[in-house]
Amino acid sequence: MLKTRIITAVILALLLLLVLFVLPDAWWTGLAVAVVIQGTLEWSKLSRLSGRGAYIYTALTLLVMLALVWFDASHTEMAQVLPHLLVYAVSALLWLII
């Protein structure tokens, strides 16, 4: 069992490095969005959200991510710092409250 997990971890780490350094930025962003959305679906199941609640949670997460992607593409690096900081701060606050 441990051997299988180690082999899986090595393969996934190699795939991550390959995707990170070989794919164009747009593909990497799309993959990151897909992974986070899958995570929100799993989290909504774990927190026993169902139906409309799970849908709203996933949709809001997707909207925030797409807004950040759009903002990143349309502004300079220095202009991106404050919005990212605000998103992280609000996310951390919500995580602590919930």
Mean pLDDT: 84
Low-confidence stretches: none
Which percent band covers the strand fraction? Answer: under 5%
**What composes the largest sheet?**
none
* Element-level helix/strand string: HHHH
Please give the share of residues in helix.
Answer: over 70%
Radius of gyration: 17 Å
What is the tally of helical segments? 4
Based on helices, strands and strand pairing, what is the structural class? mainly alpha
- Globally, the shape reads globular
- The total domain count is 1
| N→C terminal distance | 35 Å
Number of strands: 0
Architecture overview:
- The protein is an all-alpha fold.
- The chain contains 4 helices and no strands.
- The chain has helices at 2-22, 25-46, 52-74, 77-97.
- Helix 2 (25-46) runs antiparallel to helix 3 and helix 3 (52-74) packs antiparallel against helix 4.
- The protein is globular, with a radius of gyration of 17 Å.
- The chain starts with a helix and ends with a helix.
How is this fold's topology laid out?
Layout: H1 2-22, H2 25-46, H3 52-74, H4 77-97
Helix pairs in contact: 2-3, 3-4
Task: Summarize the structure in short.
This protein is mainly α. It is 89% helix and 0% strand. α2 (25-46) runs antiparallel to α3 and α3 (52-74) packs antiparallel against α4 (77-97).
List keywords for this structure.
98 residues, mainly alpha, 4 helices, 89% helix, globular
